[in-house]
Structures are given as structure tokens and as C-alpha cells.
Design brief:
Elements: E1 4-7, H1 17-31, H2 37-41, H3 48-59, H4 65-83, H5 95-104, E2 108-112, H6 118-125, E3 133-135, H7 148-156, E4 164-168, H8 171-179, E5 183-187, E6 198-200, H9 208-214
Parallel strand pairs: 1-2, 1-4, 2-3, 4-5, 5-6
Helix pairs in contact: 1-4, 3-4
Bound molecules: 1,6-di-O-phosphono-beta-D-glucopyranose and magnesium ion.
Amino acid sequence: MIELAIFDLDGVIVDTAKYHYKAWKRLAAELGFFFSEEHNERLKGVSRMRSLEILLEVGGIEKSPEEKEKLAARKNQWYVEYITQMDESEILPGALAFLREAKAAGVKIALGSASKNARLILDRLGLTELFDCIIDGTVVSKAKPDPEVFARAAEVLDIAPSKCVVFEDAFAGIEAGRRAGMYTVGVGDPEILHEAHLVIPSLNDASFTDLCNRLPSNP
Ligand code: B16
Ligand code: MG
């Protein structure tokens, strides 16, 4: 019986990847090279600093740790400007109904995101109140596929990992959920998310109760 549903943010509830891309592309342009959408795929679910390192690798550029901090801060300043303009209309189709259904089923809801801007995004989307617990990049030190972000949510709400289900769009996130000893539902491409217990294309038209009934008897 599931008692806690943990949701990744970017790619599951909202598509902030386009704003991350806009800001990273702008930074690459300042550094004198083009950063393609294909390159950007490698940044999904990855921490801010690791994302910058990948970007610099693509551009064949080396920077000192101090310069990297400055560049990451610069990118984040633009990114925050973009996401501050967001509103409820950017919640991905079906996500709100799905969250409400889970809540109505008596299940606790947590956020498990790598983003340090997660609270700002949830506020802009008007979703903060729905969450019983928010674990984001400001409180965890180890990035997915480390299970820390999901394990922490279960710990805070005092729920056994075997009673938790994680909703994730990134391969590393599914691995993190499995390593935490939880059920995992991949949201997106089944070829990428094949390690998940179940995969759905999006939260649109999905039923939380139905998905829970389809999970195996042990995670
Ligand atoms: P920030 P998630 C992740 O969010 C994004 O997928 C990833 O592209 C981003 O680099 C990371 O958050 C850190 O974001 O720069 O805002 O701290 O998918 O874990 O919700
Ligand atoms: Mg994600």
C-alpha cells in the first residue's frame, strides 16, 4: 500500500528545461560557441555545476573553480529572470489533477528535485500548498542517481521506502528511486526509462490509483 508519492519537478510537473536551455545557450554565446538542443539533453536532471562543466566541455573551454562559480551564478540569474515570469498555465497537462487524485487517496505528496529554484517554481505555479514535504537542491548534497533526495523525503515524513513511489523523467532519477528501495514510475520515453517499474508517457490521463494497483508486490 503506497503512503508517499514523490515527484521530480522538471519534466514531470513543469517543463523548465526550455528556460535552462535558453540561459545556458546565452552563456555559451557569450563564451563564443553554439550550444545545441541536443547538447542540452545531457543537462536534464543534472546539478547546476555539473551542467556548467558539461557545457564547458562541449565548448572546449577550461575555467578555474572561481570562474566556474561566477559563470554558474550568471546563468542562474538569467534563469531566475525567466522562471519568475511563469504562472499556472505552465503546469504540464494532467499534473495538477494527478497530484489532487493522489492527495484525495490519502497519500502524502513530496517533491524530490535537484533544483535550488524548486520553491520559487512551485510558488509561481501555485502548487506549494499541495506538498507535504519539499526536498530540493538546497537541502541535499548528493545529486541523482544518489538516492539522498528521495530517501530524505521518506525520512522527513517517517514513511518506509517500500511504501513510496517516485515519479521521474530522467534515467538518473529512476536509478535514484530504485537505490532508495522505492517503487518508480518513469514519465516519458520507455526506451530511456526502462529501469522503472512502470512507464507512462505523461501524467495526462493517468490515474494514480490505477498505477498503484499495477505496481508489483515488492519494489
Ligand atoms: P538549478 P529536476 C533539475 O531539476 C533539472 O532537470 C536540471 O536540468 C537542473 O540543472 C537542476 O535541476 C538544477 O537546477 O540550477 O535550478 O538548481 O529535474 O531534478 O527537478
Ligand atoms: Mg526531471
